[in-house]
Amino acid sequence: MASTAAGKQRIPKVAKVKNKAPAEVQITAEQLLREAKERELELLPPPPKQKITDKEELNDYKLRKRKGFEDNIRKNRTVISNWIKYAQWEESLQEIQRARSIYERALDVDHRNITLWLKYAEMEMKSRQVNHARNIWDRAITILPRVNQFWYKYTYMEEMLGNVAGCRQVFERWMEWEPDEQAWHSYINFELRYKEVDKARTIYERFVIVHPEVKNWIKYARFEEKHGYVAHSRKVYERSVEFFGEEHVDENLFVAFARFEETQKEFERVRVIYKYALDRIPKQQAQELFKNYTMFEKKFGDRRGIEDVIVSKRRFQYEEEVKANPHNYDAWFDYLRLVESDADPDTVREVYERAIANTPPIPEKRHWRRYIYLWINYALYEELEVKDPERTRQVYAACVDLIPHKKFTFAKIWLLYAQFEIRQKNLQGARKIMGLAIGKCPKNKLLKGYIELELQLREFDRCRKLYQKYLEFNPENCTTWIKFAELETILGDVDRARAIFELAIGQPRLDMPEVLWKSYIDFEIEQEEFGNTRNLYKRLLQRTQHVKVWISYAKFELSIDSDERLQKCRQIFEEANKGMRSCEEKEERLMLLESWREFEREFGSDSSRERVRKLLPEKVKKRRKLTAEDGSDAGWEEYYDYIFPEDAANQPNLKLLAMARMWKRQQAESEDVAADQPTEPQTQLSSSPPSPSSAQEAEEAPDKQLQTESGRESQTDTDHQEELKEELKEELKEEHDDQEEEGKNNNNQEEEHDDRDDSSSSSSSSSSESEEEEEDGAKKKEENNTGED
């Protein structure tokens, strides 16, 4: 029975969550993990320490530990770390025999594990079992002869024990396997530690045969040189040259051979070696060799001869490069730099003429950018190095004639040409050049350069004419208008500068109008023409309602030292707020209100601060539907929106008002029924607010019913009115909280709302009335409700 009763017991229902909006403080998985780490929830306390007092407890402890190790090994025999831990534990108990047995069992499982062999041998060495350690090393190098670590450990142990012969024997066994270079060097260093130079030489002989590389032959020769065997060292170098022959010759070998002979003061032999190497090694592979040969000749040869050799060598290289690609202008630059450093002007001119003859094949500016610098360097060389102004003028003229100015031009050439004429004190010629440039190919850079030139010469009338030409050429350039006005301001002609600004802001197209307006406003502020500045701000606000313009206008009024500055600044903020109510960018409107709040915080009163605070919006998270490029549904996106109190006041919640009116009507009817029939129970009417469907019926009631309803409502006592106000406040608060949930379920509510409208319209007694009468009835209901409140 008990079980039956338990089976029939009902499972409690899960409580439904009414508010499904996300919480303000979100908890992430990262935060949960961090809190668990900080509180150390997953850390287990260490096992309690156990004190062993007698031999029996020790044996029990050993038995438990061994059983645990054996169980781990039995579970997975291939995990070598379990074997090593087991053996090290036995070793810590001085059970060497048991540890040795464990290592042997582990080697039966995996005899190719390097760590296992090393731990085994180290255990034997720690316990001073030398013969056991030798046996282990022998077995290891026999099974794994390519593991160099075994050989190094074995030889080190033998040498530490003083067994030099045994160590040499191990090295010989190792060298039979022809290991890498470091092993041979270890063997050689071992012999040198015991002053066995002859044996080291023998090892070197075997070494250069096993590893026949140039660096090993050089090491062999330096070994002989270090120990004073000069003849043997020279013989090693000669053997190495014969060994590699002419096919596999290397410049490093000859460089080392030449340096050796140089230390022996054999300069003729050094020269012969360098010449022999240069004749047999390709030029591109002998850069280091040629460098060392040059350094040698600088030390012990003729200076002029050395320079001629170097220049001729490099000139030959550059000639090969420019022959392979005549349009490689970088190679021409290097070649000309070399020739200019050590050649007569005629030779340099010849190279320049050859270089500039290679014009780019395509008339596009990107192909001419590097080429044009050949002409610039040519002209500068003639002017600065040769001091020939007439030839420089010819170079500039030829360059200007060569450039296809109808397609593109280079303002740098024209400006350098004009500056050259000025340095030659030919001002009229410079002006002709700039005029020709502007006539052929007007460019911003050319006009700016010409204006700067005239400004340096203090020719302000010419600057005005040039600015006029510049603005006729490019009237959209705001920088030019600003510079022109600044020039007039500097010259003291304020009216002219103001006229220029007026012309500028009247242009139909400008590249940076905001910069131009700001400059104009700053100009008027500097002139302390505050009335003109206000007019400029108003004109600018007629064109744009940007928030930064309003803020700048307010700050301007605040900066003026007058008694009404605070009032004017506050008035500007109010006008801006009114003007930006229809602005779609709510962030800009918020920026304006925040700036207004900062102003009131510093200069306003408590009432003004409270007023601005009420204007600040509320930040609300909403969702909107996304659509992909192909028109398909891409899901929902969360975004933040700002709800301003002024906008919310213009859009009353009609649903809430209708519910409140319906409730008040039911309260009035219940009072009437109670007065007519006092004996009947009053349980038919509810004091709670009606449902949304009844609210829809209330909105569709006729005008006559509204009038009777308002008459009955006027007869209710004060207690009902107070309760109504409290309920309205609660409903407004609940409606505000449910705005986000309504946004999420918007589609479902619209469908339900349509169904309710259909059902209410079919059951309403006023379905035959027109739409105009319904609108009039709704307006009268709102007016009556407003009067009662």
List the helices and strands and how they pair.
Elements: H1 2-8, H2 29-39, H3 55-75, H4 80-92, H5 96-109, H6 114-126, H7 130-143, H8 148-160, H9 164-175, H10 181-193, H11 197-210, H12 214-226, H13 230-244, H14 251-263, H15 267-280, H16 287-300, H17 303-324, H18 329-341, H19 345-356, H20 365-368, H21 372-385, H22 389-402, H23 411-423, H24 427-440, H25 444-456, H26 460-473, H27 478-490, H28 494-505, H29 513-526, H30 530-543, H31 547-559, H32 565-579, H33 586-603, H34 606-615, E1 618-627, E2 633-643, H35 645-649, H36 654-676, H37 692-699, H38 703-714, H39 718-737, H40 739-744, H41 746-763, H42 771-788
Antiparallel strand pairs: 1-2
Helix pairs in contact: 3-4, 4-5, 5-6, 6-7, 7-8, 8-9, 9-10, 10-11, 11-12, 12-13, 12-14, 13-14, 14-15, 15-16, 17-18, 18-19, 21-22, 22-23, 23-24, 23-25, 25-26, 27-28, 27-29, 28-29, 29-30, 31-32, 31-33, 32-33, 33-34, 36-37, 36-39, 37-41, 38-42
Main location: nucleus
Family: Belongs to the crooked-neck family.
Protein name: Crooked neck-like protein 1
